[in-house]
User: What shape does this take?
Amino acid sequence: MKPVALTLGDPAGIGCEITLKAWKALREELCFFLIGDLAHVAHMAQAQNVPVTPIQSPAEAPAAMQQGLPVLKHALPHAAPAGRPDPANAAAVIEIIRRGVDLVRRGEASALCTNPINKKALQSGAGFAFPGHTEFLAHLSNAPLPVMMLASPLLRVVPVTIHIPIAEVPRQLTADLLEATVRVTHAALRADFGIEDPRIAIAGLNPHAGEQGAIGQEERTVIRPALDRLEADGLNVTGPFAADTMFHPVARRNYDVALCMYHDQALIPIKTLDFDGGVNVTLGLDFIRTSPDHGTAYDIAGTGTASPSSLIAALRLAAELGARRAARAT
Assistant: This one.
């Protein structure tokens, strides 16, 4: 197996700290390397008593992993004190992401895992023209529809609309978008997660899933037509269900993923059930990408208290999905 490529993320956030902790936890289990500024990483590593091993290419990562955290050097133009994001580093942060994507697409790494970024700093410092990581990665891979999945051992969820105001959700939610999102999700569950016949549960938009039109019409005019087309093609889709009854333990046994109509409808349940174990997975790309399900956490950056649990889960899932995709390609 090729190693997993891990990007530095915002150098002023907790990404470097949790990466060092992840190396301690995973060094006997799997192989990954960090793309980042060697001096910055070495400074952080000294505080945690973690050795760092510079590498020139991903091929050196397996041997280096036993000696210390493998770091593929990519310099930052400015120092990055903890908790103080600097837009002057924005271009380098973006290039690190590009480099990680290139390495995976060229077959030098099995998957990409990304540490959290600060979108505002990237926008102000380098004119970053994307709402977030997902959209940028879709641009780099020419993916027509990137789909964001949050996954943990307890639950998988997909929001159909993502980073838009609640007021925009009914306007942007269409039968075509819902149908396309389900198809991307279905294909990824089969190909990368190894689920032969994925069971996909669909949430309603309105309270009580519209209550047969008494509390909104979207279930009838948008969701039902999409499900009819999907069912006609043999996909195992059910719903729309009232979102407030979809996530208790008995309900979760009946599906492999829940498709929700907007961001918080999807993320509140999984973050409540498994805040530390949730992983962000981007479906619909031509490579595997995972990320921890949290932000830069500037408020605790540099204190040594950041939990690596979500990053560890993200690296494990990246390695698992990367191995499955590589096996399928042979």
Summary: The radius of gyration is 20 Å. Residues 309-329 form the longest helix (21 residues). The domain at 154-273 is CATH 3.40.718.10 (Isopropylmalate Dehydrogenase).
